[in-house]
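Budget justification note: compute hours in this period were largely spent on complex prediction jobs such as the one shown. Inputs:
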Amino acid sequence: MFILSEQQVSFILDDIRRNGIGLEELQLDLLDHICCVIENEMKPDQNFEDFYLEIIPRFFKRKLGEIQEETDLLLTFKHYYAMKKIMLISGALAAIGIVVGSLFKAMHWPGATPAFSLSVFILSFIFLPVLFLLKSKEMKVKREKITLGIATLFGILVSVATLFEVMYWPGANVMGIISLGILFFLFLPIYFFGGIRNPETKTNTIVSSVLILFAAGFIFLLTNLRPSRQSHYVFAAAIQQIDKSYEFATKQNTLKYSSAANDSTKSQTDLTQLKYACDSLCIKIEAAKNQIVDFASSGREQKPDLEMLLSDNAGKYDLPTHILFDNKDEPKAKLTAIKADIEKLKILLKEEFHIADISILNIDDVDNPGNAGGEKISWEKSKFFHVPFELVMINFNQLELDVRMLESGCL
Amino acid sequence: MYSSELIKGTLKTIILKLLSENDKMYGYEITQKVKELTGGKIQLTEGALYPTLHALEAQGILTTKAVNVGNRIRKYYSITKTGKKVAAEKVSEFTEFMNTMVYLLDLKLNIG
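Corresponding output:
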């Protein structure tokens, strides 16, 4: 048996490297294999180099580098399976999360937001990108890859925009508009004009384009169509009317305080207490209102007027509920502080000013309108929990007015 | 000698079956063993053998051990526990395939 010298082994290794075998493990395999062939098959009278050149073509069809290419392809295929697994698992998780999140949200159970956020995160940043990578590898035409990339981008933007909308984070509308822009002006034209050129895909492309157009159009209409302008005028007018009454009552009270300051029959201490109690309560109510308004107008460069605010947020009950109630549906500190202040004011009105009827400041538990079984709900929940934006604003304004009316009664 | 198209589809099964019956083997040894067992009717090409060995190693079906042989390194391939299960599945799948082919071709021959 022929024994190869160190120099001959180096020669073979160099030749393997030179001919496109880059993977070290593969170099070692081929080196040993070629050495084995030479050692076992070369006849004593044959020349090493001649024999090497004779046997090396049996390792390939065109060039030695084919082995490296084939290995790379198979190794990528291994990742293909792992990626496919990741895609399927993440897809299933995202689907479960969205179903659970939606169900919990509809039933007002705690845990809806984390489930929904997690599923959107998985969908946008794991499932869709992996889906794109896998599918784009299967595609040979560049145009198809671009179309798929745009569709993926659209999908990611839509799901993230939905998450932002649900979480009341700023930027949801901008993202939604950008994603629809991508769909209508980028994806659909490329998809449509690319598909109709090919007679095989022509019909499918037209049908799919029409369906996509309708689906996107419906989403746009459902999310962006406002209720009639008339209802905003009505709500805005109602709120403004209460505001006017409130301002009037406040002004009248200020005048009455001035006159009462010179009235020796009235206790100045009680008056100071009354003013402090009413003012601090109204400040707290204003702060809560402002927080809701700020949240509702986040994302806008300029603070919207009342009508615009109502136009954007009419019917949205989640927004004030999110500001005023915690994850366990219990009122947050700002609301309990308002209730506590009302309680204090009522005691003051009863004990110091002997006002007999203070029923307009009723903060007792009330019958649950949706439940005839006798179950009662708290004042906070009856006025503000899952109550639409416009009615929350009216309830707060009415409360402020009631406070000023009772204050006026004492003066 | 059989055509490379026929061998290509069965290469993985052949490698796994051989390695499940032998403790460890190196590439050249595998080609020689197949040649010997089939009387030269099946000759594995190096261009197909090594990419498959590397892919099987990456999938955790095979493991390797490097041993110094003279002035070069030889990589011995062994089958893992998972690999043995895969080998059994591949062999059983191929047996079923062969039965189907026999049935299918006989049927066609009868019709013809």
